[in-house]
Sequence to fold (398 residues):
Amino acid sequence: MSIGPAAAPKTRVRRTPEAARENILAAAEALLVEQGPQAIKLADVAKAAGVVHANVIHHFGSIAGVETALMERMIRQLTDKVLVALNQPDAVLGVGAQALFDAFEAKGAARLAAWLELTGEGARMTLVREVVDEIVQTRLARDSGVDRDAAVDFILLNIILAVGVGLFGPTLSALLGRPPERARELALELIEGRLTGAR
Amino acid sequence: MSIGPAAAPKTRVRRTPEAARENILAAAEALLVEQGPQAIKLADVAKAAGVVHANVIHHFGSIAGVETALMERMIRQLTDKVLVALNQPDAVLGVGAQALFDAFEAKGAARLAAWLELTGEGARMTLVREVVDEIVQTRLARDSGVDRDAAVDFILLNIILAVGVGLFGPTLSALLGRPPERARELALELIEGRLTGAR
DNA sequence: AGTTGTACTGACAAAAATGTCAATAGGGCC
DNA sequence: GGCCCTATTGACATTTTTGTCAGTACAACT
Fold:
């Protein structure tokens, strides 16, 4: 069909292996967050990343490889975020709870959790456990008045509520005729209320 | 390979269309709850239902047909459950909240919600909205002291917390070294605390 | 410039999942 | 009994998704 001069030599983007993996995982993450786990197909991830699907296989071996790498990456990002927020020297209990809530309420984090739970990979969140342990340790060392179990209980509730809001907050709020941020506001009130010793 | 007498005439189970659909949807629901949305494949649903996959197509037209029928069925079951629990004449506000919480905390309901949200079908929960509206109406008629928005706010929080517990309660509790029911207990305490006018 | 390692690609192959169709058989009805 | 309707099935066909492989092009090193 083509007549003109010889086809131009094809120019390629050549990344370092790390950059290539990063690029692909970022594309996969976007798909996960925007369209759900079902959308993580070889061809779609490749197209979103701007490469050919054989290239995805080259870097991850298989689609399952992409999935587990993505899980690990997102879990690491989440724990990093939590640790950074909590290690700020002025992080008193209340502020720390906010940070924890914020981290888990983020859309990506919430959907990661749902993904892990629905696919039976919930055990993969061990890293989160370590972070929580670290938080508790810090708290106990700083403020000897708190009981360890109570602290863990509080964090447990905090995380569940945060993920619930991150997952369903906007949709459910809208469904019930309230502004999209309403669920978040209410949840924070609830957390703070409990914190300030409401009972 | 076989030698003996001629093969026995194949006996079939022949159901009414309604029973056949019901049978298939029940199998699909079990798959959804136990293995997640990814497990809803034509062949797997058929095997679990004890029929051939062509039969599934016959009754639902396509796999997408099975999915939407399952969504509708589960939503209907959920709303029915809520309504029944709430229409008991002695359902005061506290008991009603318990019933609401229980309905949404059930594993199937929680996973249904996650499924709908992740696949972008969150809008399908309109039926839930109608139920909530009905609840609010009833409440307002019975107890003129409550403000409509406050009631909706409370229900919103209640549902999100319940679904969060239903989805992540057992896994997260175990992950943090607590008994599997711990998250549920804490959440109920929280709900009750708010109910009894903690703030 | 030549050599080398490997990220990258296109084309092909295999597997998995979905859908089509003619034929079979169960159950109600005459 | 014979007839009709259709739920059910097995075999085939199509589409989607995943994976293989030989060759190409980019960058680093000599």
